[in-house]
Amino acid sequence: MPHAATIPATLEQLPDTYDVVVLGAGGAGLAAAVFAALEGLRVLVVESTPFVGGTTALSAGTAWIPLSTHANEVGVEDSAAQVQTYLNATVGAQSAEEMRQAFITECAAALAQIETKSEVKYRPFALHPDYESNQAGATLRGRALDPLPFDGRKLGRLFALIRPPIPEFTVLGGMMVNREDITHLLSMFGSVKSFSHCLKIVARHARDRLSNPRGTRLVMGNAHVARLLYSLAQHESAALCVNTAPSKLHQDARGVHAITLVQNGYEKTVKVRCGVVLASGGFNRHPEKRAAMLLGIDSAWCPAAPGHTGAAHTLAEEIGAVYAHAGGSHAFWAPVSIRKRADGSTAAFPHFVMDRAKPGFITVNKEGKRFVNESTSYHRYGLAMQVQGAVPAYLICDAVALKKYGMGMVRPGAGNLRAYLADGYLTCGANLTDLANYLQINGPQLQQSVEQMNRYAAHGFDPDFHRGETDYQRNIGDAKAGNLNPNLGALATAPFYAVKLFPGDIGAATGFATDEHARVTDANHQLIPGLYAAGNDMRSMMGSAYPAPGITIGPGIVFAYIAVKDMLTRSAPAKTADA
Fold it and tell me: pLDDT by residue (tens digit) across 184-195?
């Protein structure tokens, strides 16, 4: 493809003035840059790492954006009132009403602009429920949108800029798979359709590996980021600098008017006409902020991208920006399992949907007791681990469930478990007593908990935690297993297996205080002119609630749109593409 934009750029070759500077090339940052470029603004994206995409590139890439035309594609008649009802019920006082209202008002327009004027495209799934599906205003489909797969070869040399996915989420040495692919792979020999689908993607991957270090068929978060980068690269008014850090935000009576950047020892101050957008990914890897807000949570448990160091936050705080927090957790959570890779790095594997909610699994604490609904959302699961003091927790299954569903980094159908057992990632016991002894947990209580679960499975009802009683929970169970409850199944076939789980922070809930236009405010609730925040740098409009899939990416896109819209309204800038 012909790349009109300056991507990637060196600071030396850049002009001295930009309309918009975006700090961070994750999902929200790239979206802000695309929206600015679509308006003809000169935009510079500054990324501190060698890759673009941030945590979005490592994620499923789902964006929660209600009220789009995609809802009609799956037969949903949604409304602003229904969305508001749902957010009021699930988020309530945890965020300002005007923030949620701004999102509801602008979400359809933001999506329409980016889909019609760029290469960013989404699709709904026939069943993709809101997580609190028993609450008023919830829907089973139409709000959570997944990015369409993307051919990475279209990016040419820019393909190398896309942050690679978590290796443990790929197969066959770097082949990405999405939920559709996984369904076909698990039933590869069960239907002609599945066999054909698998043959097609495997053959494509084999061809890719002849000339690429990994597959170029991009799905999920990689597809989302690739589509944003490809779209940005079409605009002459856009530039991107990687391995570049901000060192100072310059402010005067007019507000933020310049930023000093450093790249490979070279320093440059860039004038900014309309605004700086903070989209650096949140505070999570800032050592002091992490210690203060995520007390006792090891950074090794965090499965998010490495770039959200909070460096940009320090600069924003120097000119008056403050965090907003309305109680609850400072982060969003998922249970993760930990394993050392061959290269010495640590893999933190998020247990989103593939194992814990399936029949034949149970989670216990050190006392051998259940403490959580295993089929609840990953955020609620991670919170429960902390509230109940179950760190680590123990995810346990029998031989049938392990073979059928896998467990964490152990893939479904895995025959050779030797490596997982040898390094301690997976623990095996010939019976539950042996398993408990190996794990050093209460054996009699574990036996009692499993026997109780087996009785619940036989009757299809969990009176303790009500597992499998909502549409969301049933959706991530296994309706084809033939049980009375798709989330409940007996642990009956030895040997038994376990993986230790830890609460992993997957994103920041606490971020900078802003108004409904994404403008950053100070401790006195006064605007800091020219400074905006989006994504995890903004205090989440969900508070510390996690009511649906994609509630970081979707609002990140919408508030990026709102920020650029506000810049245009307030600055009415003359286009500087030829300046």
Answer: 777 777 788 888
> Are residues 236 and 41 in contact, defined by beta-carbon separation less than 8 angstroms?
no
Q: How far apart are CA 459 and CA 479, in angstroms?
A: 15
pLDDT digits (tens, 9 = 90+) for 38-62: 999 999 999 999 999 999 999 999 9
Residues 273 and 40: beta-carbon distance below 8 Å: no
**What per-residue string of b and e applies to 252-274 under the rule 16 or more CB within 10 Å gives b?**
eeebbbbbebbbeeeebebebbb
Q: How would you classify residue 265: left for phi > 0, otherwise alpha for psi between -120 and 50, otherwise beta?
A: left
Contact, 107 vs 80, CB < 8 A?
Answer: no
**Peptide linkage before 495 cis (omega within 30 of 0):** yes
CA distance 326 to 510: 9
Return the structure tokens found at 163: 């942050």
Q: Is the pTM of this model over 0.90?
A: yes
- 395-408 burial, b for 16+ CB within 10 Å, e for fewer? bbbbbbbbbbbbbb
CA distance 560 to 549: 19
Using DSSP's 3-state secondary structure scheme, residue 497 falls into strand
CB 248 within 8 A of CB 315: yes
Exposure string (b/e) for 96-125, b if CB count within 10 Å is 16 or more?
A: beebbebbbebbbebbebbbeebbbbbebb
